[in-house]
């Protein structure tokens, strides 16, 4: 259930009640593709760094260890020892990213596992069954994600098929939620808006899926090749045609600046691999700029990554020590950078919620963007 608490311009502040707890939005979902955040981050760590929602990947967990095994072991929450909400994506993005290994038909998609090459077939029903076996809080509908700059003659039929797939997803989820042995009978379903960068296709699709009365709505197929300006424009024209009284999720986005801009356009769910991926490469976020801890200038720098930050890395360790760990290829260096970055993102979302609550979002956004752009 979605409860809109406050609006500040188009920015929304809400609560989403789920069977695994209440999510305060806007929210950043921490990406744990194979049921773990890359960088040796445990679920105990996630609790410490203010994580509200963990996101796992349907395709990757289907390939290994197998969704049927996870169901046998009590579901994803029990398997990874996490008691808060989990969102599972549908596998649709893997269809996009495995372009060379796939064949798309009306029934679904035939493709080869990136692990062992075996043939996998996934359609709407299969995606819902896998996500039901995982027992996630929120399941994503199975869709095709056309390249952002794809031709209109490709995009329109693709979006029409995604709509037909969504109808099948909804029907199959209703069936699965009614079964006796289903782990999470209250699993929620989010539909996905597609349409590349064609305003009319996006708007028409948003209207069509809004009529299906789903638990939430995502905008997919962005941050896959188009410019930031094009992405913001698509949000400007699309989000007003999605239900205001349901969660709006911008998939796979993004940088802190992307999030600040998208919140201003009515988006309240986000996910992205940037904080963890950048952290594993020694790139860390601060309120003033992004730092590359491999730089020699940090060799003798005994300050924390960011003065005043309360993350597990900054409370204890210096830039100099973390740089040494990274240079020595010690896993602890990666881990500390990932923890810092995720804490930075989760804290920024907290600040965003507070700013909307206080009716001060425009000032907060302007100040945050200015500081991050102009550095220390």
Automatic annotation (TrEMBL):
EC number(s) given by UniProt: 2.4.2.29
Record's protein name: Queuine tRNA-ribosyltransferase
Keywords: Glycosyltransferase, Metal-binding, Queuosine biosynthesis, Transferase, tRNA processing, Zinc
Species this chain originates from: Eubacterium ramulus ATCC 29099
Family designation: Belongs to the queuine tRNA-ribosyltransferase family.
The protein's required cofactors: Zn(2+)
SUPFAM superfamilies reported for this sequence: tRNA-guanine transglycosylase
Phylogenetic classification of the source organism: Bacteria, Bacillati, Bacillota, Clostridia, Eubacteriales
GO cellular component terms given for this protein: cytosol
Residues covered by region (RNA binding): 252-258
Protein purpose: Catalyzes the base-exchange of a guanine (G) residue with the queuine precursor 7-aminomethyl-7-deazaguanine (PreQ1) at position 34 (anticodon wobble position) in tRNAs with GU(N) anticodons (tRNA-Asp, -Asn, -His and -Tyr). Catalysis occurs through a double-displacement mechanism. The nucleophile active site attacks the C1' of nucleotide 34 to detach the guanine base from the RNA, forming a covalent enzyme-RNA intermediate. The proton acceptor active site deprotonates the incoming PreQ1, allowing a nucleophilic attack on the C1' of the ribose to form the product.
Positions annotated as active site in the UniProt record: 89 (proton acceptor), 271 (nucleophile)
Entries under Pfam families matching the protein: TGT
UniProt-annotated binding residues for Zn(2+): 309, 311, 314, 340
Listed NCBIfam families: Q_tRNA_tgt, tgt_general
